[in-house]
Design goal:
Length: 233
């Protein structure tokens, strides 16, 4: 459990570092691109400055020439307004691009983390959080999933649950002895194994054999759940 917890912590730290590096790289890249773009854009007053320089170098005194100056000045103002609007549009696009890239990075990290988590779940199996057994009504609740069992199957599961609560591992002969009331030496190991098989078949052999009932070689059978999760009535 400590190794698994340490592995999960290391994975979380690695994911955090990846996100931090990715966000820093995105911000620096877009900031550099934006700075380069804005530095290469002409100044809003560049047009008016050029027009003013022309009239300084070539003095104009006629009425038509003065009128031309006014038209050029108005054109310069229009050009400046257009250029300012372009700057705003470019800035908004850069911000939008940054948000999209950050969101993409976060989603990718989330997918990688989720994939790792799913892999851990597949390796560890589904965790049995609770097991409640009602002998009187022959009902079992496994992780809030209700099962209606026969009396024999209910007794087999109850015996295993009591043994797990006591920290014991029961052989097939011991299981048969507890249920039948006979001495373990007079019981057959195969009889208890048959009861376990019926229990697995009733609850679902694939699920229970992997998650609930474990067969420990040369020792016997045990419920592979926390004893505090068991409740008998």
């Amino acid at each position: 459990m400590r190794a698994r917890s340490s592995s999960a912590t290391d994975a979380a730290r690695a994911a955090g570092r990846t996100v931090g590096f990715g966000l820093t790289a995105i911000v620096l890249l877009l900031a550099g691109a934006g700075a380069l773009l804005f530095l290469n854009l002409p100044s809003a007053g560049a047009f008016n400055a050029r027009v003013s320089q022309i009239f300084v170098d070539n003095p104009l005194t006629g009425q038509s020439e003065i009128r031309l100056l006014e038209i050029l000045a108005l054109s310069g103002e229009a050009f400046a307004e257009t250029l300012r609007s372009y700057r705003i549009v470019i800035f908004v696009l850069l911000v939008f691009s940054t948000a999209l890239l950050v969101a993409t990075l976060v989603v990718l990290v989330m997918l990688v983390t989720l994939n790792r988590r799913m892999t851990e779940i597949e390796r560890a199996g589904i965790q049995v959080a609770s097991l409640a057994i009602d002998r009187g009504h022959r009902k079992v609740w496994l992780n809030d999933i209700e099962f209606d069992l026969t009396e024999a199957v209910t007794e087999t599961l109850a015996v295993l649950a009591e043994a797990r609560m006591d920290g014991e591992i029961l052989s097939g002969a011991q299981i048969e002895a507890v249920i039948s009331g006979r001495d373990a030496a007079d019981c057959d190991e195969a009889a208890g194994a048959t009861r376990i098989k019926r229990l697995r078949d009733t609850l679902g052999n694939q699920l229970v054999s992997e998650l609930l009932i474990r067969n420990i070689a040369r020792q016997g059978y045990v419920l592979a759940i926390d004893r505090r999760a068991i409740r008998l009535t």
